[in-house]
């Protein structure tokens, strides 16, 4: 039944996702082939689990290698095609395909699948926003992929609630030979020779001692101070106490350090993997250009002139200073970042970001600030030569009105 349920996913929403990916074509179709291979690799792993017993931990990594390699290939395809017109599609798959690592999660793999599905939600929403009015295939593409992971979550919850079930009895591989010099197995209980008469005498003596009343403790030795471990530290030495086996973490792709990038590719300026750089300047940019920062740390970037938009993705302790934007400034998956606008910015979007300081100019007081799943957001408004800080609300209270609608209001922090 477990294999049948997984096969239904492959033949149902996943097949639909692959079919629509072929219709869209380009990088979407190429990446979908890697996704298909990842699911097929996991199917083989589930078949192994259905017919064999759980292998030793040393063998699990080898058995999971095909699935892990395909997940890595999906993510690397996105990294190598950042200038693709379908970059949001590639990112949606790259961020959520790690749901296939549920086989290594215990004791709650189903919530892990949902978490990975939610991780790609930002990008799937961007696909819907950008293509909803242009091509319905992209809307169906999003629905098919989200449904694939939703069905995968339901499958895991039903058949592998607390972790992957190894239902077979046979070994997954040939068992290793016993170590040299190992002790022989203990003798069976039947082999123990104990005379019935002697056993009866022993038991009678035991019961006689137990039934002697208060005198049962008179022969016990008194524990003196030098025999107490809390007073005699020397007695504490010995083997380490037993420690329970900690549940293994899900498979994660270890990204090696990558060289910094500062280049212009057509209309897009790519600034990636910059660390401890405070003199980065984008000059001679045109109005239709965009600037994309990715995984920069402890750096400052200045953008001169008027451009279309700026996106800061997965950056830490990074600042951006710019003159004017036609569209928006976006923060995604960032930590402790800052922006300062010298002229005009219509929209500031903050998503999945912890710690964001937004310095506005007098020309940008009509800006729209959109935030979601973020914390520690502060808007600093100009006042003379200084700034006044205002916190963006993070906590809300929702009530049901008599008309059965929802009324939401900000909860003020009294502290």
UniProtKB/TrEMBL annotation:
InterPro entries documented for this protein: Adenylate_cyclase-assoc_CAP, Adenylate_cyclase-assoc_CAP_C, C-CAP_CF_C-like, CAP/MinC_C, CAP_C_sf, CAP_CS_C, CAP_N, CAP_N_sf
GO BP: actin filament organization; cAMP-mediated signaling; cell morphogenesis
Stretches assigned to the C-CAP/cofactor C-like domain: 259-392
Lipid bilayer topology: Peripheral membrane protein
PANTHER family in UniProt: ADENYLYL CYCLASE-ASSOCIATED PROTEIN
Annotated Gene Ontology cellular component terms: cytoplasm; plasma membrane
Origin organism lineage: Eukaryota, Metazoa, Ecdysozoa, Arthropoda, Hexapoda
Localisation per UniProt entry: Cell membrane
Protein name (database record): C-CAP/cofactor C-like domain-containing protein
């Amino acid at each position: 039944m477990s294999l049948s349920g997984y096969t239904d996913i492959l033949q149902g929403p996943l097949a639909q996702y692959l079919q629509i990916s072929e219709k869209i074509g380009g990088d979407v179709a190429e990446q979908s082939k890697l996704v298909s291979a990842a699911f097929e690799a996991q199917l083989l792993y589930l078949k192994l689990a259905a017919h064999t017993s759980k292998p030793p931990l040393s063998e699990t990594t080898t058995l999971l290698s095909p699935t892990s390699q395909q997940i890595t290939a999906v993510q690397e395809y996105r990294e190598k095609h950042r200038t693709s017109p379908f970059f949001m599609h590639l990112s949606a798959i790259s961020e959520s395909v790690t749901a296939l690592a549920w086989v290594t999660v215990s004791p709650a793999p189903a919530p892990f699948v949902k978490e990975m599905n939610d991780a790609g939600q930002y990008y799937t929403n961007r696909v819907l926003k950008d293509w909803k009015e242009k091509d319905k295939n992209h809307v169906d593409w999003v629905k098919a992929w989200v449904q694939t992971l939703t069905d995968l979550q339901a499958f895991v919850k039903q058949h592998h609630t607390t972790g992957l079930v190894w239902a077979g009895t046979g070994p997954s591989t040939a068992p290793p030979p016993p170590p040299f010099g190992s002790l022989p197995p203990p003798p069976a209980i039947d082999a123990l020779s104990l005379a019935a008469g002697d056993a009866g005498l022993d038991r009678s003596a035991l019961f006689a001692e137990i039934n002697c009343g208060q005198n049962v403790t008179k022969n016990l030795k008194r524990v003196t101070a030098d025999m107490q471990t809390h007073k005699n530290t020397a007695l504490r030495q010995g083997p380490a106490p037993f420690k329970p086996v900690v549940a293994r973490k899900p498979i994660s792709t270890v990204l090696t350090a990558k060289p910094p990038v500062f280049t212009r590719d057509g209309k897009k300026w790519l600034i990636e993997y910059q660390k401890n750089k405070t003199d980065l300047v984008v000059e001679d940019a045109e109005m239709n250009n965009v600037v994309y920062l990715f995984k920069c740390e402890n750096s400052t970037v200045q953008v001169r002139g008027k451009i279309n938009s700026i996106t800061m993705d997965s950056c830490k302790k990074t600042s951006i200073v710019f003159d004017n934007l036609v569209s928006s400034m976006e923060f995604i998956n960032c930590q402790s970042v800052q922006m300062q606008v010298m002229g005009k910015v219509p929209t500031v979007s903050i998503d999945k970001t912890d710690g964001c300081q937004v310095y506005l100019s007098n020309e940008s007081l009509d800006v729209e600030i959109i935030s979601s799943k973020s914390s520690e957001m502060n808007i600093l408004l100009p006042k003379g030569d200084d700034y006044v800080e205002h916190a963006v609300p993070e906590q809300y209270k929702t009530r049901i009105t008599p008309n059965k609608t929802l009324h939401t209001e900000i909860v003020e922090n009294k502290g």
